[in-house]
Amino acid sequence: MLNRRLEKIFDKLRAGELPEPPATSTLMDSNRETRCSGCGEIIGMYERYYYARIRKIIAVRFHLACHEAWVRFRHQPVSAHSPRASLSIEKTGALST
User: Fold this and answer.
1) What residues make up the domain containing 57?
2) Going by DSSP bridges, is the β-strand pair 34-35/42-43 parallel, antiparallel, or unpaired?
3) Cys staple from 5: which of 39, 47, 58, 70, with CB 3.0 to 4.6 Å?
4) Which residues sit opposite 64 in a β-bridge?
5) Domains held by the chain: number
6) DSSP letter (8 states) at residue 36
7) How far is CA 2 from CA 19, 50, 95, in A?
8) Has this prediction a pTM greater than 0.85?
């Protein structure tokens, strides 16, 4: 499941579908069911998630692992010639290049 989520995030980052930070505020929440802005999957009512406001008009919500991927990989553009274009996700959930 984690591998699939990370693959979806990388696809959205490559396509420019996720907003560029900086976030004006980021909090952790868990009080309602919502959809992850990164992978698109449901975040359950009792799962912790990150809620971030960007430029006071855009709100995004992420699973904890999806938020980590968004934070780590958002700043570097991905091109066909970059090392990240060949990023693979191992079955263990660890990222490798």
Assistant:
1) 2-96
2) antiparallel
3) 39
4) none
5) 1
6) -
7) 21, 16, 11
8) no
Tell me how far CA of residue 87 lies from CA of 23, 39, 43, 45, in angstroms.
Answer: 26, 17, 25, 32
Q: Helix, strand or coil for residue 6?
A: helix
3-state secondary structure 56-89: CCEEEEEEHHHHHHHHHHCCCCCCCCCHHHHCEE
pLDDT, tens digit (0-9, with 9 covering 90-100), for 8-29: 988 998 898 988 766 778 888 8
Query: How confident is the model over 32-66, as pLDDT tens digits?
Result: 899 999 999 999 998 999 998 887 788 999 999 99
Which tokens is 27 given? 């909090």
Going by C-alpha positions, the residue among 47, 92, 46, 54 that lies closest to residue 70 is 54
Structure tokens at 8: 């979806």
